[in-house]
Amino acid sequence: MSTSDVIVAVEGVTKIYQQGRVEVRALRGLDLVVRAGELTALYGPSGSGKTTLLNLIGALDHPTSGRVLIEGRHLGALSRRELSHLRRDRIGFVFQAYNLIPVLTAYENAETVMALQGVEAGTRRRRVGELFAEMGLEGMEDRRPDELSGGQQQRVAIARAIAAGPAVVLADEPTANVDSETAERLLDIMGKLNEDHGVTFIFSTHDPRVMERARRLVRIVDGRVDGDGTREG
Questions:
Q1: Rounded alpha-carbon distances, angstroms, from residue 171 to 31, 64, 94, 149, 162
Q2: Beta carbons within 8 Å of 108's beta carbon, 6+ residues apart
Q3: Which residues contact 212 (CB under 8 A, 6 or more apart)?
């Protein structure tokens, strides 16, 4: 089997938390491989380990045992600085709470990662302009987050996540805080980015609409993969 297109490899990962005197096993020897261009939804009951898994893939947390690799790089072998650079350069994040910087404009929020990477200002303007046009955000560049609707804020967050060309975008319940019409538009945008530009997405979700749009469904139950299927087309 070729490994050249493997973006994420989770190998025998266990995650144990201590809650007071209680030991919580969030993940139990979980294995998962995600390849370039996949649109994958992680779903399952609350407390099944979906968000924990997403946090481990995003190098926001570390496993108790097992390995997580991004493009073949073992996260556990990287220094804090190397992990920070990997998160900045290779992983895009879309959070259900948007996590935009309140004092920055929509444009400034969207260019944040590229600015941290040292991308030239003209290139940043062009890239953000292209994304805002594609996402229906033209004319909103100078608005701050509190001047945008929830759906508009989430679109800015998606633009920020993909502007710097990450290997994978992790989206934790991306439709949780928006209405149905906005959720459908967000899913249209992410589906188009996946189809037209090959952006790799991994969603954590309870939303049936997200599951309907995903091309791969991975069911997580009690910290293990309980089902894994790919739909064609």
A1: 19, 23, 5, 19, 11
A2: 101
A3: none
- The span from the CA of 217 to the CA of 44, in Å, is 10
- Read off the tokens for 90: 């290779």
- 197-207: per-residue pLDDT in tens? 889 999 999 88
Amino acid at 48: S
Instruction: Bin 222: left if φ > 0, else alpha if -120 < ψ < 50, else beta.
Output: left
Burial class of 34 by CB neighbour count within 10 A (0 to 12, 13 to 18, 19+):
buried
CATH code of the domain containing 221 = 3.40.50.300
* Strand partners for 220: 225
Please indicate, yes or no, if residue 102 is contained in any of the structural domains. Answer: yes
Strand partners, 9: 33, 69
Give the global pTM: 0.90
Q: Provide the number of structural domains found in the chain.
A: 1
